C-alpha cells in the first residue's frame, strides 16, 4: 500500500456533507429528509405485483378503499337471479333436460353453482314455471316461453279481477259512510242528546252491577239451585246404595266383618243415605 492510501479501494460513500464523519462501510448517517420520507411511506404485506406498488405510495386516507377493492371477492347470485337465469336456459334452448344435464349446463353458461341447481329447479317446478314428468326411471324438465306468457296473463287477469272487486267494495263502503252521515251533522241539539245518551248508558251499567249483587235472591236462580241439590242428593244416595251392595257381597264371599271393611276402605261409621 502506498502513501496517502494509494492502492486502497475507495469508500462506498465518497460524497459526505461538510462536518459529518463518513464510514467506509455504512456511509454517512441518514439525513432528516430521509427519515421524513420513510415516515410518509405506508407499507402493507399484500398484494404483490403492480398493485402492491400502488398501495405503498397511496395516501393514508385512500389506503382503506384501495385495499378493500383488492381484497373484495365476487358476490354470489341471489335465489331470484338463479331462478331467472335457469329459466333463460329453457327459453333460449327450447329443449327438454334431465337434472344431470342442468347440473352441467347451468354452472358453465349461467354461473349457477352445481350444488344449488336441484334446489332452484325444484322451486321452479313447485311454482308451476317449469314442467316435470317422470318417464321410466328418469325425470325430465322443460319450460316454453308460450306457457310462461299464458301463466302471466292468467295471473294478470286474476289480479285485475281482485283489483276491480276491491275498488267496488271501497265504493260501496264509501256510499254507506255517506248515507250514515245524513242527519248526523254536529248540531247543538245532537250534542245535548249525545251527552244524555252517554249518561243513560253509564246509569244502565251501574244498575246492572247493583242487580248482580242480588242475583242469589232471584227466584229463578233459587229454583235452579233447588233442582241442582235434588239431582246431587239422588246421585249421592245411588252411590251409597252401591257401596252397601259391595259390602254385602264381600261379607258373603270372603266372610269379612263389616267393621273391618269400613276400617280398611275408610268408610265412616255413620255412613248412610241422605234424607
UniProtKB/TrEMBL annotation:
Alphabetized InterPro entries for the sequence: LZ3wCH, Mnd1_HTH
Sequence segments annotated as region (Disordered): 1-62
Residue intervals of the Leucine zipper with capping helix domain: 221-274
GO cellular component terms, A-Z: nucleus
Keyword tags: Coiled coil, Meiosis, Nucleus
Protein location: Nucleus
Residue runs in coiled coils: 156-242
Domain Mnd1 HTH: 86-145
This protein's name: Meiotic nuclear divisions 1
UniProt organism field: Monodelphis domestica (Gray short-tailed opossum)
Upper lineage: Eukaryota, Metazoa, Chordata, Craniata, Vertebrata
Amino acid at each position: 500500500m502506498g502513501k496517502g492510501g494509494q492502492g486502497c479501494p475507495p469508500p462506498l460513500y465518497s460524497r459526505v456533507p461538510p462536518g459529518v464523519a463518513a464510514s467506509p462501510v455504512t456511509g454517512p448517517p441518514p439525513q432528516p429528509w430521509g427519515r421524513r420520507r420513510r415516515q410518509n411511506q405506508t407499507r402493507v404485506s399484500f398484494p404483490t405485483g403492480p398493485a402492491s406498488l400502488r398501495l405503498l405510495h397511496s395516501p393514508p386516507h385512500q389506503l382503506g378503499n384501495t385495499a378493500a377493492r383488492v381484497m373484495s371477492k365476487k358476490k354470489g347470485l341471489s335465489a331470484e337471479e338463479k331462478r331467472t337465469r335457469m329459466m333463460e336456459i329453457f327459453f333460449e334452448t327450447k329443449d327438454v333436460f334431465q337434472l344431470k344435464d342442468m347440473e352441467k349446463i347451468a354452472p358453465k353458461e349461467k354461473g349457477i353453482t352445481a350444488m344449488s341447481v336441484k334446489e332452484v329447479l325444484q322451486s321452479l317446478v313447485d311454482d308451476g314455471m317449469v314442467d316435470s314428468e317422470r318417464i321410466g326411471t328418469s325425470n325430465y324438465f322443460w319450460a316454453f316461453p308460450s306457457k310462461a306468457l299464458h301463466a302471466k296473463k292468467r295471473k294478470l287477469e286474476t289480479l285485475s279481477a281482485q283489483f276491480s272487486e276491491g275498488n267496488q267494495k271501497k265504493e260501496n263502503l264509501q256510499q254507506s259512510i255517506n248515507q250514515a252521515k245524513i242527519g248526523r251533522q254536529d248540531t247543538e241539539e245532537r250534542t245535548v242528546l249525545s251527552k244524555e245518551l252517554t249518561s243513560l248508558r253509564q246509569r244502565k251499567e251501574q244498575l246492572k252491577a247493583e242487580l248482580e249483587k242480588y242475583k242469589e235472591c232471584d227466584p229463578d236462580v233459587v229454583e235452579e239451585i233447588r233442582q241442582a241439590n235434588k239431582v246431587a242428593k239422588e246421585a249421592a244416595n245411588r252411590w251409597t246404595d252401591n257401596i252397601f251392595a259391595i259390602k254385602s257381597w264381600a261379607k258373603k264371599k270372603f266372610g269379612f266383618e263389616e267393621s273391618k271393611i269400613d276400617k280398611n276402605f275408610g268408610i265412616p261409621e255413620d255412613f248412610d243415605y241422605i234424607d
